[in-house]
Amino acid sequence: MNPPRRFAIWANTAKATFWDTLPGIMSWADERGLEVFFTTRIVNSLDDPGRYRHKVIRTADDFSRMDFVLALGGDGTILSAARAIAHRQVPILGIHLGDLGFLAKVTLSDLYTRLNQVARGNYTLELRMTLRGNIVNGDQSKTYTALNDFVIDNGDTHRMLTCQLLADNRFVGKYKADGIIIATPTGSTAYSLAAGGPIVAPGVSSIVITPICPHTLTSRPLVLPDSSVVEIVFPEILDGAGIMVDGQIEEPLRNESRVMIQKADYEIAFITFEDTSYFQTLRTKMGWGRRGDLDS
Q1: Using N-to-C axis directions, what is the helix angle for 16-31 and 111-119, rounded to 10°?
Q2: Domains in the chain, start-ordered, CATH in brackets?
Q3: How confident is the model at residue 174 (pLDDT cuts 50, 70, 90)?
Q4: Which of 47, 48, 75, 226 is catalytic?
Q5: pTM of the full structure
Q6: Is 178 assigned a catalytic role?
């Protein structure tokens, strides 16, 4: 890969760890002559705006000028960065500042080792599939893109949700459950996994359908090809139901609502390294493959 010349910082500014880490990152960038761009959220949170030599990301299109985006925080921070970058094909390097940080490839302990590798162009890119969801409420329609998942449930009412699922205009089944998750392979290790869904490796481009606490033993998770167009309709009265996009954006649903979900027309690129692997991450961060205390 080509060595970078400029990068943007996207961060969870509510974390004190970020502010503790920022001076070192800026010194590292200065030593290598790299241009650093801050988001407006970071700029507006600075105690002393003149402390660091930086430029500002003022519009989403400014990301197109970046060689990569350094995202510091947890998975939510990386998901929001991916949504901002969208189709612009700018790779993300995730720095883990949270409790789990499954999407982040780098921890604070190896931060500068990995940054130095990136500065030398010694990294690879891993492309992650996204989903596009079209939510139709009467004569109104909104479209969102998710890196992890779309989650439909009955919200604070805690009532059972009834919905019908179709794939490519063919009836799949009627679900009675607390909700339903439509996930990417990336999202298969998030809420979908907690609800009993399968782990799907990122390279297996597919759509994962996982019911949440289904009211039947025969309602099981389903994996569809990425060419599928999934439609969800609601035959019974909705009370407080809504759809969440990557756990960060919520839209209400009504009786006449329809949700259409399919593979989006772009992928999100993540910076990764030759000495890391998806399964290593599963083992170290999620304890995958361990048998209780036998391996401790």
Answers
A1: 40
A2: 6-123+273-286 (3.40.50.10330), 130-265 (2.60.200.30)
A3: very high
A4: 75
A5: 0.92
A6: no
